[in-house]
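User: Quick sanity check before I run a bigger batch. Here is a single chain. Can you write out its predicted 3D structure?
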Amino acid sequence: GPIYWHFKNKDELYQAVLGFSQEPLEQLIEQSRCMAEQPLAAIEHFIGEWFRLLLENRWHRQSFEILLNKTELTEQMADTLKRERKLTRNIVQLLQQLIEAAGPGGETAVESQARALFLYSSLMGITHSW
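Assistant: Done. Predicted structure follows.
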């Protein structure tokens, strides 16, 4: 419809929508990274803010709904998908670093990465079924 007139192509439209979900998460990564000296507090902050965004930010919530449920992924969207995958990697890496810093030691990188992936997958699962 008329909304497409404001964008060159579907990818440009998708990038604009995606910004509403990604930019707050990129900021959340930085906030949580700044709290790394208190890793458990940083993890708690990350999770709490994730849910706050879902509860209180309609644009964020709706952009996730579009991303997860209403988007046909095409080759034209390759750059957009790269950005999304980079954000996912950054979130998982942050969570892994915080989990490693919070633990008593002795946990392997594989174990802490598995915990980080589980936490991220749980957040995304809740978001997907919101």
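The mean pLDDT is 86.

User: Great, the batch can go ahead then.
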